[in-house]
């Protein structure tokens, strides 16, 4: 006899095609989105659901994202006009600092050096003998350098290098938005959270993180389409550009364990390992010193800006030389908690929820937090908890931190000490930490009480970004060992009826 579906053990998909779920409109379920929509003519109507006409949800979201990205580039104009070169504090006072123009000369690109293979002279690097970025990011930087032509001076070349990189990163931003908007098939408007995120516009061109972020989003999209091997390949390539995407394999392991989908996890992990090796092994063989510089630099780097450890160091006067040990211990404890959540929650958490939690945990415990690291979390937050109120609370904290770090550097970079002193900077670090922790708490609550999860509540979805995990029955959970399953009727019919009547009344 087949057991009835439960909240922990939803009915598996049948071989027959089912009707496509209705498109979820935030203005039907989110009070902030409903109130904000009055500025643009009121809540979305029939055309927003059907996608008729040229302005489909995906195109609308991408267009707004590109507009925000352009505003972010305009915000950097004071530096593009000379602020990067006119004094130590000008780029901080205008909050338009970017690593990109400085590293064009400082890492040997202006002299035609090949990353990882050519040692950087001390006269231009300040002691950094090799490029301290992962291989795929280094390739991206080198490609941009080859496209930087036409300058009449080193300063113009550095300005052109930033413009070229900004254009290439714009493509990454467009890929990111499309992937996020399509990961949950019936929730394209959740991509608007990413498109309108102020921290995305402000930090997109500080560094090269958008490359890894876009590939990670593409990997999650492929996973949602039940293509674990291709998803793993993208996650491996993203890890070759930035280390954090490898963390997503942890949530996949836990969720596939609970669902008994070991084959899917094996293909994803194998694809990730293979693609990472294809990019990295040749460079390892050609120049071990150059390849390993990123990992040595990450290990040896002292406590730096934006971290909890910097607050403790400044408040106590103690140098946290063993911050790596403490951070690793906290990360391990946090991962154990996430594992317990994945295996003990009354209903298997969604992939995006655990992905956000593990990356946020890394951000909170790391010994440095650069402003652009927020890019790692923005797409994960939009998929984990697409709720405008909580998203904006968190973004407000991140925007405050973005301004705070530049004002702190301006204060310390000039004898006039105009900017944010040490105590003020500690407050903005605390705001960043508390804002991220708050959003983590909301995601954990959603996992423990699925009826509060916006994705599952609005239309009765299980895990639309889960691919092979979506509506898969549990093969193992710690909860099932301690108490019998509780039958729970699916909320999908009720949610779909509500959407239908809301559409009818609006039309």
Automatic annotation (TrEMBL):
Region (Disordered): 1-28
UniProt keyword annotations, A-Z: Cell membrane, Membrane, Transferase, Transmembrane, Transmembrane helix
TM region(s), chain numbering: 130-148, 160-181, 193-223, 229-256, 268-288, 325-344, 351-371, 391-411
Gene Ontology cellular component list: plasma membrane
InterPro entries: GT87, UCP010361
Gene Ontology MF annotations: hexosyltransferase activity
Subcellular location: Cell membrane
Protein name: Uncharacterized membrane protein
């Amino acid at each position: 006899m087949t057991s009835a579906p439960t909240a922990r053990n939803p009915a598996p998909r049948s071989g027959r095609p089912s009707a496509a779920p209705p498109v979820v409109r935030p203005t039907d379920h989110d009070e902030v989105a409903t109130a904000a929509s009055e500025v643009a003519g009121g809540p979305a109507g029939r055309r927003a659901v059907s996608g008729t006409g040229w302005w489909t949800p995906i195109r609308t979201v991408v267009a707004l994202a590109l507009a925000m990205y352009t505003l972010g580039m305009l915000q950097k104009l004071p530096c593009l006009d000379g602020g990067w070169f006119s004094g130590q504090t000008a780029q901080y006072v205008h909050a338009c600092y970017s690593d990109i123009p400085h590293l064009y000369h400082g890492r040997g690109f202006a002299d035609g050096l090949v990353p990882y293979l050519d040692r950087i002279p001390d006269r231009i690097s300040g002691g950094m003998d090799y490029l301290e970025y992962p291989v795929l990011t280094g390739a991206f930087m080198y490609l941009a350098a080859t496209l930087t032509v036409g300058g009449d001076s080193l300063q113009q070349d550095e300005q052109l290098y930033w413009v070229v990189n900004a254009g290439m990163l714009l493509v990454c931003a467009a890929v990111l938005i499309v992937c996020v908007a399509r990961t949950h098939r019936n929730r394209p408007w959740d991509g608007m959270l990413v498109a309108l995120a102020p921290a995305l516009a402000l930090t997109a061109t500080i560094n090269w993180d958008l490359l890894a972020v876009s590939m990670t989003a593409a990997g999650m999209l492929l996973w949602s389409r039940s293509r674990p091997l291709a998803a793993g390949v993208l996650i491996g390539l993203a890890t070759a550009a930035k280390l954090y995407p490898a963390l997503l394999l942890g949530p996949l392991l836990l969720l596939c364990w609970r669902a008994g989908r070991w084959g899917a996890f094996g293909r994803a992990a194998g694809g990730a390992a293979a693609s990472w090796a294809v990019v990295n092994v040749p460079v390892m063989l050609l120049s071990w010193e150059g390849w390993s510089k990123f990992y040595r630099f990450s290990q040896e780097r002292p406590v730096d800006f934006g971290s909890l450890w910097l607050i403790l160091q400044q408040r106590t006067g103690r140098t946290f030389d063993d911050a790596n040990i403490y951070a690793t211990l906290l990360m391990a404890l946090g991962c154990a908690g996430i594992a317990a959540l994945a295996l003990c929650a009354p209903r298997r958490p969604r992939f995006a929820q655990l992905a956000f939690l593990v990356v946020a945990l890394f951000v909170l415990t790391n010994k440095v937090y650069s402003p652009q690291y927020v890019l790692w979390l923005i797409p994960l937050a939009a998929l984990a908890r697409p709720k405008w109120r909580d998203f904006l609370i968190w973004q407000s904290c991140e925007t405050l931190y973005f301004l705070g770090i530049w004002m702190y550097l301006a204060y310390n970079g000039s004898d006039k000490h105009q900017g944010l002193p040490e105590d003020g900077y500690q407050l903005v670090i605390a705001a960043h930490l508390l804002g991220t922790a708050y959003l983590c708490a909301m995601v954990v609550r959603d996992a423990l009480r699925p009826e509060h999860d916006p994705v599952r509540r609005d239309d009765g979805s299980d895990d639309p970004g889960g691919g092979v995990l979506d509506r898969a029955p549990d093969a193992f959970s710690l909860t099932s060992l301690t108490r019998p399953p509780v039958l729970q009727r699916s909320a999908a019919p009720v949610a779909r009826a509500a959407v239908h009547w809301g559409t009818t009344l609006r039309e």
